[in-house]
């Protein structure tokens, strides 16, 4: 396994881990920070922190869950440090389209809706739908029971449907 090779000092093995997980960690970081540059910084910081603390990884658990938790913590710490909240614009529900301009607008609306969720709800949505983790994996990464994951997902989906509903505005 790459992790055990890393622990023995093989830096090429860590590079393989970065190549394997950088896209999904970047996606998670972007969904939690709402900024491409911030997501790049968070992703890089997460990998650096993982490398520095690799000896704390428990090989009886999934490596991705451990790495994912580091990325989520880095994202949340980054946001806490910034304390910037972007307003949500009422623009109607997202539209699936081949038009790149409409697609970008829909992506921005979805991102704004995600940012309107509380951190706990945003985390489970990102982990489930953008990182494609199972309920069990989400629970392990967050240190919560699977039932709590399901409950948070249910509530988060309800909140998202409200935010993305036609006619919704930040004042409603």
Which descriptors would you attach to this protein?
172 residues, mainly alpha, 70% helix, 0% strand
What topology does this entry show?
Blueprint: H1 2-7, H2 11-33, H3 36-52, H4 63-82, H5 100-116, H6 119-130, H7 135-142, H8 146-163
Helix pairs in contact: 2-3, 2-4, 2-6, 3-4, 4-7, 6-8, 7-8
Tell me what you see in this structure.
- The protein is mostly helical and 172 residues long.
- Helix content is 70%, strand content 0%.
- Helix 2 (11-33) runs antiparallel to helix 3, helix 2 (11-33) crosses helix 4 and helix 2 (11-33) packs across helix 6.
Number of helices: 8
The radius of gyration computed from the alpha-carbon positions, rounded to a whole number of angstroms, is: 17 Å
**Structural class determined from secondary elements:** mainly alpha
How would you spell out the order of helices and strands? HHHHHHHH
Largest sheet: none
Compute the separation of the termini in Å: 52 Å
What are the low-pLDDT stretches, counting only 5+ consecutive residues below 50? 83-95
Mean pLDDT: 80
What is the gist of this entry?
The protein has eight helices and no strands. The chain has helices at 2-7, 11-33, 36-52, 63-82, 100-116, 119-130, 135-142, 146-163.
